[in-house]
Protein: Pyridine nucleotide-disulfide oxidoreductase-domain-containing protein
Organism: Hypoxylon rubiginosum
Amino acid sequence: MHNPRPRLASEQVSAIVVGAGAAGIAVVGNLLELLHPDSVVLWVDPNFQGGRISASYREVPSNTRAKLFVEYALAVEAFKEIAEKTPKPNGISALQELEPEETCPLEHAANSLLTLTSGLSKHPRVRISYATVADPQWSSASSSWNMRIDENGGTVNYVEAPIVVYCTGSTPTVSPLPAAMLSQPMNLDLDIALRPTNLRVQLPRNRPICVGVIGASHSAILVLMNLVQLRVNSHPDLSVRWFTRRKNLRYAVDKGDWILFDNTGLKGISAQFARDQLEGDKISEGPISEIITQVLCAGGPDKEIAAYTQELPACDYLVQAVGYTRNPLPGIHDSLRFNHETGRFMENMANNPVPGLFGAGIAFPERVVDRAGNVEMSVGFIKFMRFLKRVMPAWVKEYNDSKADDLYD
Ligand SMILES: Cc1cc2nc3c(=O)[nH]c(=O)nc-3n(C[C@H](O)[C@H](O)[C@H](O)COP(=O)(O)OP(=O)(O)OC[C@H]3O[C@@H](n4cnc5c(N)ncnc54)[C@H](O)[C@@H]3O)c2cc1C
């Protein structure tokens, strides 16, 4: 990352924001508020389509109440202007029409991201590039990052900026299965399983099939819900094996002025389904037991491997809902560590902040400790926004201070 030979930059900007999902949008909005009024932000994404929520999860029920999406969509001045100036109905006005205390299909959240993206891309201080970034190199001489921008059309540019923010998102984790298994089920992508319309066409309906589902989080429970619906509506020969480490599911609990397990507990429709269908004897004796067989994998890695080895060969397909892994960051060394309190990257050994390099979003969330002492990663539109409002003034201060110094030089 430290450059032996300086590369020529075709352009200099105040900041480069990488990624145009919920986090990248929030970062651009905050930068416009915090940076010098003559600053320019370069915003890079290959699609500018609202990130993963819009690309993959439109059909998924939210785990957040509609009012929190509205709070996010109006959280900074630039967003408010977009909401006012975009002809109605638009993605934000449609959100405002929803019942504020209820959850909603993520389609609504996705449409608000598209409205914000369109508005920000027309902002006079934002330059957008349909591209991916790679190979950042720090120049001490200019106190800037020199970033390679690979445009979708094949052109390569180099751009310099003192501030770079990665909001590059994460992808469902797929873990290796025990090698000793006689036959392995086909991997069914979590993103497909979360989308009922895709799932319906992906799974054959002319023969008995068994789908394994690993996990007990929000995503896993949504997949179970989708599979049960499929069995009822179109796939009468479908059965499900549900591999879970948890006998007792974890729910978010509203404590009045705080929420226990706010980030890891089930909420909304998935919590309702779990309470109604999966708890206690219902999973083994209720009507759902004709569709879902629970396989408990508690007791440590050896027991888990034994359960997989015995039960997975009966599955034709397997959905792994076991978490999300950061997307690759081309050119960023593995030795860098992300500081979940400040949003900065750190040099691992020295534990010094890397100058001008920051992260946000599902790949780089804030770490929070709730009042009961539980440590969680804080993931969600409004959580990204609140974290950024807390940490970004410090990110930008160094740059604004140096601009002010320039004026007096
Ligand atoms: C199933 C599911 C349901 C969720 N439900 C909710 C909910 O109800 N409410 C809520 O608030 N949150 C929810 N979330 C959490 C969170 O809001 C989303 O995960 C959100 O999509 C995260 O936004 P992001 O910007 O961090 O990442 P993403 O949306 O993944 O966006 C990352 C962007 O970075 C771009 N990118 C990646 N690499 C590069 C590169 N090298 N160069 C340029 N661009 C790059 C990608 O093209 C993409 O556009 C949910 C998450 C999941 C997985």
Summary: The pocket of flavin-adenine dinucleotide is lined by residues 18-24, 44-47, 51-53, 57, 60, 62-64, 106, 132-133, 167-169, 194, 219, 327, 330, 361-363, 379-381 (CB under 6 Å). The domain at 174-322 is CATH 3.50.50 (FAD/NAD(P)-binding domain). The chain has two domains: 11-171+325-408, 174-322.
